[in-house]
Amino acid sequence: MKTTFTSFVVATTLAVSVHGHGYMLVPKCENTFIGDTTQFMATIEASSSGFSGSFSGSPSDNTAAFTKGLAASKYKSLKEMINDLGKVTSSDFTMECGYTNPDETPQPLPETYVEWAHGSGEGFTPSHEGPCEVWCDDVRVFQDDNCAANYPTAPAKVPYDHDACLGANRLTFYWLALHSSTWQVYTNCAALEKTTSTGATSKYAVDGSSSTPAGSTAGSVATTEGSDDTTTTDAPAATKAPTTTEAPTTQTTTAPVTTEAPITTTAPSVDTGKCNIRRRRH
To answer: What is the pLDDT of residues 7-19, one digit of tens each?
Structure first.
């Protein structure tokens, strides 16, 4: 009886450790259910991915094989592949945002880093090697082939293209753990406070997709910190020069120079608290 009980405890402990692997810490996200809010929200079977190569090796070998497979595939990004092949692990989850609420209270845009954590002492789970991406609306603003290996701090701090996120409504984090042939998908979303685009493009932008956020308005005045209202001022149009006549001497008025739009303000600083949980009503 004692042996059976011990085995049960070990099995239960392993089950908990398998499911809990992290969450987006900055910007904060709001969860849509009560339960393990560090677990993966979808899976992809390597055998059904269409990728060639072996995915039964070490985490680093599997990651190397995946990197080659993705480059040779029809997919232009990790996000595109996840949305096409991922299968949610619960009817409470969505492929769009997992178990996080995209309509949460808007959060400040991080100044320098997007952060991922698994409790206070871990960022990415070290054994869970694999790629991750950060997107602002439909613009990719960060990508790495092996985030667990290349960003080992606690919390993990990902240096994304901040300026390319100005004007975006949502920031989404995608992570794929490749330590087994059943790939684990982690997707977290956070609504963003209003900012105004400067027209900056991202060096991580994917070919064929936008390089500036879909919700941005380049050239408008940035919002005032702490305000939910955005005031937009269009730059005045240049005055067209009058048409010259056939008189012997013609004096032409030069068109005024168009006034450039004001420079945008920087988004507020980051609150690094853990994700809030909103109780889901049934």
So the answer is: 333 333 333 344 5
